[in-house]
């Protein structure tokens, strides 16, 4: 395979060559488990699930995604929820697993939890002391950034600008404003572990450096996460890991998904503009939401609007419609993924292009009568859908299944859309008018055109 991936480290699309010809190691930063994850948190889950599925077709893949179960956000949530940290993190982890499963995401090969890797973190911090990169002050251990000249190679932010841009007040004990925490003290009300620097807990960044080292070694192939993690989290991970093991170690390809925005603003817990998956699953099936997260190229921002889910639903209806008479148990005529789908994914995971190829395959299937040619294409559509984590439900049950959002469009909304469609038709913008018709159909609203007017009924 000739997979090309955009590497944040170089800012270029590069040919992917794993360290071992037949194995790939990949680490994705996982959730901090203190609350229900929001839809934005699932963009990396779904995007890198496609990467995992695709790589698995060609390589033996070890996919590690951590669970951050010790963090100040968790400690604060424990205080407000009244639950113990164990109960809170376990419950949140379970929700995360359920939600990921409903989006059709495969379980990673290994899912390490931070709290079971404290000795590894302590050992790594000791190495940083040996390398002259860490210091202890007022029970805190900090990484001394000026001692690592390569710092900033991922985010390409100059140290001067980082300091100027720092929003938080710089703690007085820091030797340099850009130094960051490796270990900090805990009081008796906070979770903590004994360490050479007293009773305390790790900083967030050291968690990922220690867990990736334990499960993937000093050097591995891919490290991924959301773009919001490039600085400081990933920059600091690089500083710790290369600081301990030498330049040229650690992750070789850095992949970052664009953020999910809502009305142009990053969806995030701190801004309060988030939608949980649980809420969204009341309106749409997991597969529809999965597709909605894949409709935009993974590096671009993805803006969630009222049209996103209906559009995803209409696409799935069309694709499943082409599989309506498909017998997945029939002797396989083809187990191959469509070559154009492979080519699209090889091009920095161009999932929207792969989807448009699935659309064309469906169009060809619709034109064919029952027979071996039709079955062959249906097989190709089905196996190609699988690499995107789509089209694996029974087509009949998908097509008969209802999504409750069809109830959601009010009469006023429907009429507003019909007016927009009429205007589009008058402007001869048939792409737009068809899109509105398909979107309404996905909402269970059927349009009936007559020369004089358009009427509608719910299906
Ligand atoms: N709006 C978003 N769009 C895409 N990815 C996101 C978004 N928000 C978070 N992520 C990603 O989700 C993963 C988990 O992030 P993290 O646990 O830091 O989120 P969080 O604690 O919910 O923070 P917040 O919601 O305040 O950003 C990371 O890979 C992060 O990049
Ligand atoms: Zn991380």
UniProtKB/TrEMBL annotation:
A single Gene Ontology CC annotation of this entry is: cytosol
Q: What UniProt keywords apply to this chain's record, in alphabetical order?
A: Aminoacyl-tRNA synthetase, ATP-binding, Cytoplasm, Ligase, Metal-binding, Nucleotide-binding, Protein biosynthesis, Zinc
Q: How is the cofactor bound?
A: Binds 1 zinc ion per subunit.
EC number(s) on file: 6.1.1.16
Q: Where is this motif: 'KMSKS' region?
A: 266-270
Question: Where is the short sequence motif 'HIGH' region located?
Answer: 31-41
The organism sits in which domain of life? Answer: Bacteria
- What does the record give as cofactor? Zn(2+)
Any idea where this protein resides? Cytoplasm
The enzyme class is ligase
**Residues involved in ATP binding:** 269
Q: What catalytic reaction does the record list?
A: tRNA(Cys) + L-cysteine + ATP = L-cysteinyl-tRNA(Cys) + AMP + diphosphate
Q: Tell me which residues make up the Cysteinyl-tRNA synthetase class Ia DALR domain.
A: 340-399
Extract one GO molecular function annotation from the record: ATP binding
Gene3D superfamilies, per this entry?
Answer: Cysteine-tRNA ligase, C-terminal anti-codon recognition domain (1.20.120.1910), HUPs (3.40.50.620)
Q: Name one GO biological process term.
A: cysteinyl-tRNA aminoacylation
Q: Which residues bind Zn(2+)?
A: 29, 208, 233, 237
Asked if the record carries the keyword Membrane, the reply is no
Under the subunit heading, UniProt states:
Monomer.
Q: Which family does it belong to?
A: Belongs to the class-I aminoacyl-tRNA synthetase family.
Q: What is this protein called?
A: Cysteine--tRNA ligase
């Amino acid at each position: 395979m000739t997979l090309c991936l955009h590497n944040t480290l170089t800012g270029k699309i590069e040919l992917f060559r794993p360290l071992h010809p037949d194995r790939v190691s990949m680490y994705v930063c996982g959730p901090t488990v203190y609350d229900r994850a929001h839809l934005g948190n699932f963009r990396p889950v779904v995007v890198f699930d496609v990467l995992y599925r695709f790589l698995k077709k060609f390589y033996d893949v070890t996919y590690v995604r951590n669970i951050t179960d010790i963090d100040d956000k968790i400690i604060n949530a424990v205080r407000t929820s009244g639950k113990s940290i164990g109960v809170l993190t376990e419950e949140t982890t379970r929700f995360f697993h359920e939600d990921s499963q409903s989006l059709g995401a495969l379980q990673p090969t290994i899912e390490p939890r931070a709290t079971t890797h404290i000795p590894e973190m302590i050992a790594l911090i000791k190495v940083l002391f040996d390398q002259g990169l860490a210091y202890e002050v007022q029970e805190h251990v900090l990484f001394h950034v000026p001692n690592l000249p390569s710092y900033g190679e991922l985010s390409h932010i100059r140290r001067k600008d980082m300091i100027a841009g720092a929003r938080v007040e710089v703690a007085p004990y820091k030797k340099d404003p850009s130094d960051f925490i490796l270990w900090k003290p805990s009081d008796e009300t906070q979770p903590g572990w004994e360490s050479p620097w007293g009773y305390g807990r790790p900083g967030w960044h050291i968690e990922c450096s220690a867990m990736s080292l334990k499960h993937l070694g000093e050097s591995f192939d891919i490290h991924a996460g959301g773009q919001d993690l490039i600085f400081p989290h990933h920059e600091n991970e690089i500083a710790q890991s290369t600081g301990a093991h030498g330049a040229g170690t650690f992750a070789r390809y850095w992949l970052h998904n664009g953020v999910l925005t809502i009305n142009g603003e990053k969806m995030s817990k701190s801004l309060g503009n988030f939608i949980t998956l649980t809420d969204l699953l009341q309106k749409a099936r997991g597969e529809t939401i999965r597709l909605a997260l894949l409709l935009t190229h993974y590096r671009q921002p993805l803006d969630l609007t009222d049209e996103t889910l209906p559009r995803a639903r209409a696409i799935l209806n069309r694709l499943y419609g082409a599989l309506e008479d498909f017998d997945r148990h029939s002797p396989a005529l083809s187990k191959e993924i469509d070559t154009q789908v492979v080519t699209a994914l090889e091009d920095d995971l161009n999932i929207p292009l792969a989807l448009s190829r699935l659309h064309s395959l469906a169009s060809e299937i619709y034109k064919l009568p029952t027979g071996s040619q039709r079955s062959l294409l249906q097989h190709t559509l089905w196996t190609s859908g699988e690499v995107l984590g789509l089209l694996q439900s029974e087509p009949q049950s998908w097509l008969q299944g209802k999504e409750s959002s069809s109830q959601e469009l009010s009469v006023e909304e429907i009429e507003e859309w019909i007016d927009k469609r009429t205007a589009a038709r008058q402007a001869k913008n048939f792409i737009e008018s068809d899109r509105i018709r398909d979107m309404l159909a996905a909402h269970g609203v059927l349009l009936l055109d007559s020369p004089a007017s358009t009427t509608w009924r719910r299906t």
